[in-house]
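[AMINO ACID CHAIN]
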Amino acid sequence: MSGTWTAVLVASVGCYLLKLAGLSVPASWVEQPWVARVVDFVPAALLAALVVVQGLTSGDDIVVDGRLAGLAVAALALALRAPFIVVLLLAGAAGAGVHVLTG
């Protein structure tokens, strides 16, 4: 078995054990108000972290390019409550425009 498959199997077992640990937590712990408040913010924090990593990095380097312009335009369009398809089109056009102008 290769090192890759060993890593996949170890990660799979780890994920299963983590899921099992979550199911083993007493209900009285999970029903605490502060736990509910924290859990509500976890998906937004993870999404924000993914967006930043994908928008500002290339390999191991921090890169400022058209992706950042597209991200800024998308954030502005979302703040102005534009429909999602409009946000996508504006962000794509901004990113492509910066790429054309700098490339």
